[in-house]
Amino acid sequence: MHRVVISGTGLFTPPNVVSNQELVTAFNGYAQRFNQQHAAEITAGTLAAQAESSVEFIEKASGIKQRYLMNKSGVLDIDRMRPYLPQRGNDELSIQAEMAVFAARQALESAGKSAADIDMVVVACSNAQRPYPAIAIEVQQALGIQGFAFDMNVACSSATFGIQTAANAIASGGARAVLVVSPEICSAHLNFRDRDSHFIFGDAASAIVLERAESATAAQRFEVVGCHLATAFSNAIRNNFGFLNVCDESGIGQPDKLFVQQGRKVFKEVCPMVGEHILTHLSRLNITPNDVKRFWLHQANLAMNHLIARRVLGRDASEIEAPVILDRYANTSSAGSIIAFHLYREDLQSGDIGVVSSFGAGYSIGSVVLRTL
156, 186, 227, 271: which one is catalytic? Predict the structure, then answer.
């Protein structure tokens, strides 16, 4: 069995910054027009009026201050309120593959690796733009990687599940090095006409290179000490979009074909599950919570992260112990915890312990314990 390390990371950040105020202006314009158009039904009590959003509401509810989107104009157009991403030809690089390749090249460079060193590519994200051919195989071809590739979806936990899959392949000798990429275009499945969620998501792509410890040459390497995964079925976060939609026309265009969640229920159920999951994982590895220097948590909601860290540590975590990228990137689904890891790891010293943790729809929870070499 081979020891496994993370030797490189990469990040693709879209070019369009969208502030809370811009989203609020667009949403309120839509809400005001809706209320005017349906004034009679609203007055009669047969239709609920659309409540307006606000910057203060968004920041209090989530901790988000801005996000990066692949397309800005379509989202802010109250006649559209969804990104405009033109379909590309079959012989062109797909938009998700393009994002993934950018992040992957950065990760390979930071690991000091080339395409020839990689045996396996995993695209692990919450939404793929097509079922086949796999986005991962497209990325593999674009980078000139041999071996094999496949897509996997465990919603917001896709990256941590991908890390365990990669670590197992390397440890068993099935691969020398693995590239795990999470290209997330979350704006495409977000209902920008829903006041409770129109601000939640942003777009981004993260990438990780994992390899055998003996072959790693990067200046900073993180040994994968252990992975712990769990799932429990819940409808509290759901998206009913899929290929069977065309078999029942009555569902086309309905809100459930986009992201829907019961926010309070998710908060109440997921936080204790994640806290206990991390504590159990650390205990199995004979590591105490206070031994952990850094928690790279899934970036979904600031209050959730504060509560989870408090459950694990028995106290509030400092900004250094549990860094936040949510305020800038919003919820980027599976990429979030990896973005935090990518941006907040260079200060760690040899022997320092860190935990990458994800949680989301499914429910799915993943934790990866790392030791700085």
Answer: 156
Q: What is the pLDDT of residues 309-335, one digit of tens each?
A: 999 999 999 999 999 999 999 999 999
How many folded domains does the chain comprise? 1
312: in domain:
yes
Q: Give me the CATH number covering residue 312.
A: 3.40.47.10
Residue 156 annotated to the active site: yes
Distance, in Å, from the CA atom of 121 to the CA atom of 15, rounded to the nearest integer, reads 26
Task: Please report whether residue 256 resides in a domain.
Answer: yes
Range of the domain at 368: 222-372
Burial label for 167, CB within 10 Å (0-12, 13-18, 19+), is: buried
Confidence (pTM):
0.96
In a domain, 1, yes or no: no
Distance CA 15, CA 35 (A): 34
